[in-house]
Amino acid sequence: MPNSKIRSTQSGQNNGRPASKFGKLGLLAAAVMAVSTPLCVQAAEWNEWLERNTQVNFLALQNFQAIQAKDGAFRPADEEQSTGFGRLRVNLQLKFQITDNITADIDIAEEPNDFGNNGDRDFSFHQDFAGIEFELLGLAGQARDDANLTLRVGNIGAAPFQFKGFQDGADNQGNALIGNGITDYATAENGAQLVYSKSFDSGAIRGYNLAGHVTTSSFGEAFQEDRGYNFRLQGNLEFDGGFKAGLSFFQANQGDQLVFDTNGVASMDGVTTTNYRFGDGENYNFSASGSSERDTHVGVMPGLEQSIIQLDLAYQPTPDTSVIFMIGESTDDFTFSDAAGNAKAGITSFDTSGASFDANHVIKGDTSVEYWVLEAQQYLIPGKFYLAARYSEAENTSDLIDQSDNTVERIQVAAGYWFNDRTLLKFEYVDQEEGANSGGQIGSGFDGFTSEISVKF
Prior knowledge:
single chain; mainly beta; Porin; 16-stranded antiparallel barrel; 47% strand
């Protein structure tokens, strides 16, 4: 019969009867296995490559603070703050070894003190730092164990300090204390960096490092006319016995963007300034300002034709003891002012009515800050418990500013306890004094206690 003939040609025929659904599933499974076998091999090879060439770190930090602004704050609400917990900070750091001489990295962060605007409602991950690095000696077939020459493109992180700890969001375990410095001038921008490092097995000098970069004044994109570039030259020497010395020079040329009126006043609306004019965000937070504000730093520099020169000295005789000294000066060719052209000691001040005023205009006039920092750390229980302290002082020596009551001082005293090599608890007392002509952005300063617990794995 025609129908029986059709059935006899169907796969899975059994004594003239159609194949069962289990037989069909068996055939499907066999087909899937035949196709998936090479895929499984490829997946295994891919997993092996990832394990060999990928480094992944997850970081999280929770803080608690009890800090108040002192009487005379620019924003009175800061003088009566509640104690409380800050927002959790998290970072996901990935580094990929593309070839023996090419790497790529990305740090993805939910970091309120960098991206906390929009009413602190922006709970989303951002690219916080990323780039591609090329080890040029290796690429040229001249790889060496005692030297490397690395070109980095992408986000370039830079600061005039070279040896002290710093924290960025949840990445805080390299900083013995909690706050960053009042004149750290640290940031990341887009550009290119070239670094040469050399080490020696013996001798008085054990190694040196030279770095230079060029960046645009934006973490995003900025192509407007006369925007200019930022430049850095930096070097250090490491000596036998634990002594280090470094010198840094920064220069920005953003001033050509300004348009001056007949009174010699220029608005900063639409002007791109260098990101290191204040420094990176801190984990001291005030209720009257957004969490991403840099208002605990010295706010003297407009960041247009800004230059920085800084000398760093460090001594670490043992892994348990370190002392760091930094001294520097930052200058600019422009000074903050009000719309009428009256010079202001910093970006934040009181206006003629006694209300808080944030300057958005500049005039021509030399601005300068002279500063120095002393920091020390001592482990009382090696690898487990330490004490640390930092004293910072910055003097506003700008030409158009009254040279009295013009200093910001900060004292930080901290203790740290490692529960294990991945979990750190820090506790700190901080006291900042701000003179009326200092360029301090809180008003008279602040003091109080703060703490952080962080993990990195």
